[in-house]
Design a protein that fits this description.
With 395 residues, this protein is of the alpha+beta class. The chain is built from eight helices and 23 strands.
């Protein structure tokens, strides 16, 4: 497999000696309209396997993609990231035929602890230091209880440990806030993320984040296809992905909302057929694909409650049999729905887990405190989030 990847990279380096454009995917553009725009036969799409066709519907508006055209404006190659790990690749082979494949994204990732002295406000100073407005929003959300940000003054501190993926010198996806401290008038408040449940706790193990539990949206026969973010297929000799979970069930089986939210989309969505997307207002969205029909009253903008009827299992779109395709997105990134559907409902850590958690956080707490006291504090890595038509080299 390594030899294959190295060969691909060698070929791409040769092909991409020219520069390519970095663009944003237009709103309203679909994979098929993109093919039409560059006079590529839609047969390319309709000859794909069902899973690959579904991946083409994962392209998000305003996402970055990388386009290489010939001197006459014809498409030569394009790379379209659809998650933090996988991207679509369309290219012309030696016979001047367009081909489709999926490739891994060779991103880098860094983790750092930074201490930021307050000069104006929490939002302003975090964004100025890191270039990330998201981190400021996360800090405020996990400290809603027990901390009054209005009391912060110049000379107080915010410190955070976070990870960020980067691709071509720019952020890929949202930062992962692992730990944070807010210091007000000499008093420090801590929050630490528990990777087992994605919730935040203080240095004593008390929980401080709301729980957003999702229920299974239907009664099903079996899971016919599990979530896979990036998988090398040894027989097909290529990467494959399935950004959701497929539940086999008969046509007409009722589908219920997995959690409270608002209908963001109710209509036909390419290979997913009749689809409903619910925004849960907590960074999460759910997608329900291949429905036979929607329940009465389901339309864009409607407020929905967990367990409320939204539609019926079907076989619409590109489907090999009746099932529900359930997609789950956290901050715009596809994640495994079963990781949330199976999440424990307890709000406190059990003693054994609590002791292990506190042992880990104690070391992080000391690193954060040392960074605040240091006279040579680490300067945060800043990545450019500006997307424009600047020319870059992909490889």
């Amino acid at each position: 497999m390594k030899k294959i990847i190295l060969s691909i990279i060698f070929i791409f380096n040769f092909l991409y000696s020219a520069q390519v454009e970095e663009l944003t995917w237009p709103r309203g553009e679909t994979f098929l309209t993109f093919l039409d725009k560059y006079k590529v036969s839609q047969k390319l799409y309709f000859d794909l396997e069902k899973e690959d066709q579904e991946l083409c519907d994962e392209i998000s508006a305003d996402g970055r993609y990388y386009l290489y055209t010939d001197d006459d404006g014809k498409l030569n190659q394009v790379l379209i990231p659809i998650s933090d790990d996988i991207q679509l690749h369309i290219y012309k082979n030696s016979k001047n035929e367009y081909k489709f494949e999926t490739l891994p994204i060779n991103y880098t990732e860094f983790t750092e602890i930074v201490a930021i002295e307050i000069t104006e406000s929490v939002s302003h100073d975090i964004a100025k230091a890191t270039g990330e407005v998201t981190l400021a929003a996360l800090i405020k959300s996990i400290f809603t209880e027990g901390v009054n940000f209005r009391k912060m003054q110049k000379g107080d501190f915010v410190a955070l440990e976070y990870s960020q993926k980067a691709y071509l010198g720019r952020p890929l996806g949202m930062p992962d806030l692992k730990a944070a401290m807010v210091q007000i008038d000499g008093t420090s408040y801590f929050r630490f993320k528990n990777p087992k449940d994605d919730k935040y706790y203080d240095e004593k193990g008390s929980g401080f984040t709301k729980s957003y539990f999702f229920q299974l949206p239907l009664t099903f026969k079996q899971i016919s296809s599990e979530f896979t973010n990036k998988r090398w297929h040894p027989v097909l000799q290529r990467y494959r992905a399935h950004l959701g979970t497929d539940f086999s069930a008969p046509v007409g089986r009722t589908i219920f909302a997995a959690a409270d939210g608002k209908i963001e989309f109710a209509g036909v969505k390419g290979g997913y057929g009749k689809t409903t997307i619910i925004n849960h207002n907590n960074g999460y969205k759910t997608l329900y694909g291949h429905q036979s029909d929607w329940a009465n009253g389901i339309k864009q903008g409607k407020t929905i409650k967990k367990g409320e009827l939204i539609g019926y299992v079907g076989n619409t779109g590109l489907s090999s049999g009746p099932h529900l395709h359930l997609g789950l997105y956290k901050n715009g990134v596809a994640v495994n729905p079963m990781s949330v559907l199976n999440k424990p409902s307890v709000d406190t850590l059990e003693m054994k887990e609590r002791n292990a958690f506190l042992a880990t956080t104690k070391a992080i707490q000391k690193k954060i405190e040392d960074q605040v006291k240091s006279q040579n504090r680490k300067i945060a890595t800043k990545l450019d989030r500006t997307t424009d038509r600047s020319e870059i080299n992909i490889f």
